[in-house]
Design brief:
2 domains; 11 helices; 12% strand; Alpha/beta knot
């Protein structure tokens, strides 16, 4: 039997646009096996409770209590960290971190909310979802066939996380900023770039995306976030005064 854990109590499994209710049920069953209790569905396609219950045996309460969101932004409200799972490299992000390396970093906290993002069965995480992630993590596999089924991916990730509590590993307890604070920092940073002329006019400015990703990879503490917000806000106000 697995021991109870405060770590899994603060981890949220977020399925972004799942297409098959049977997969949702399988994920829920794996969550019950390993002690995870927060399931979020973002814009699920024709979600069927009846189908989910077919593969989610013994996980009925968890499936019924799953939170369905109309947007990813809504699902990430109140989160302190966001980790995405993808096997593909992305522009400005580099190669995803192998799952064992990420787990061994032991950065998961038993006191702060962490969202684990899994994408659609056919295309994985969208570019928009990836933008919200502090880190991208991949599950090692054969190069000839790198993609795992959605439910398999979630099971492997949760299993590796659950091993932390078996080893009695003490996770960090540093207070982390919420994802709303990161969004606020993005807005202020954008205003500073605009006021200073450090931006491009066309849509999809790669510099903006690179800065956003860099600020997330720093993994600031909540106190450091408040300092960063104060700094950028002071810069914004100063630039506005110069402009006027």
């Amino acid at each position: 039997m697995l021991p109870s854990s405060n770590l899994t109590d603060h981890i949220h499994i977020v399925l972004v646009e799942p297409q098959d209710s049977l997969n949702v049920g399988s994920v829920a069953r794996a969550m019950m096996n390993l002690g995870f209790s927060h399931l979020h569905l973002v814009r699920p396609r024709e979600f069927s409770l009846e189908k989910a219950l077919v593969t989610g045996r013994w996980a009925e309460d968890l499936i019924r209590s799953a939170t369905i969101h109309g947007s990813l932004t809504e699902a990430l409200t109140g989160m302190h960290d966001v980790i995405g799972f993808s096997s593909n490299s992305r522009p400005h992000r580099g190669e995803p971190i192998p799952l064992p390396d990420w787990v061994n970093q032991r950065t998961l906290s038993p006191t702060t909310n962490t969202a684990l993002l899994f994408g659609r069965e056919d295309t994985g995480l969208s570019p928009e979802a990836i933008e919200q992630c502090r880190l991208l993590v991949r599950i090692p596999s054969r190069a000839e066939y790198p993609a795992f089924n959605l439910a398999q991916s979630a099971l492997i990730v949760m299993y590796e996380i659950s091993r932390l509590q078996w080893d009695g590993i003490t996770s960090q307890k540093t207070e982390l900023p919420t994802w709303e604070q990161y969004a606020h920092l993005d807005r202020i940073c954008g205003e500073v770039r605009s006021a200073s002329g450090f931006h491009r006019c066309e849509d999809g400015d790669p510099t903006a995306a690179a800065i956003k990703n860099m600020l997330r990879r720093i993994q600031m503490s909540e106190r450091e976030m408040r300092i960063m917000l104060a700094l950028f806000n002071r810069m914004r106000v100063s630039l506005e005064r110069v402009g006027s």
